[in-house]
């Protein structure tokens, strides 16, 4: 594990029940990134960069209610019947839809994969106030990225034809955008970039290496980022590498927490 992630919980500052941060996040503003050629032309970049989890932070997650209903069993029974690793492997991009269907249940029973996908699609919706909040942040020119554990839903033939080279990852990302069920329905890309997804990186939150790759890709310091997620374990990992971290409860509380960090969000009817 990189040294940047080696912090103890004693270093955390508890600001309020749903908000933690390691070091003070820079106030909202901009920085100049000089060009690699050393000339005087610089590019303005507004800080902080906002990193959003998607499921149950921006979008309702249908897994806990709709999916058990689809299979006709309570969640407890579904978890007992389901293979314990198959969804994790799917979110990491290690298996495709066909393998998910074959291995979803421990006993190998068949199920309607297309029906499951339609169940997921039907259950996706913006959480109350989140579309308006994202719209406000995007209108204020904040740089916003998805940082999410999410699988690729796309034909298995395309998956099996790819190898993990740089060019094939670009193709994989292209396929992800074409077959992303959430994007197809809710058009999140109007407000953020689908930049950091577990199915592309081959890593899931709260793996610290995933967070460090995000910071490296963005080319900023961890304290230049604010990470928002509904899972405290994921927020804790962000804090441990030096990001600002907000544990999501609802759009109203998030707007207030962002305001506490110098990002004034005025969203009607939150």
From TrEMBL:
Gene3D superfamilies: HAD superfamily/HAD-like (3.40.50.1000). It holds the Pfam family Hydrolase. PANTHER family: ALPHA-D-GLUCOSE 1-PHOSPHATE PHOSPHATASE, FLAVIN MONONUCLEOTIDE HYDROLASE 1, CHLOROPLATIC. This is HAD-like superfamily. The lineage of its organism: Eukaryota, Viridiplantae, Streptophyta, Embryophyta, Tracheophyta.
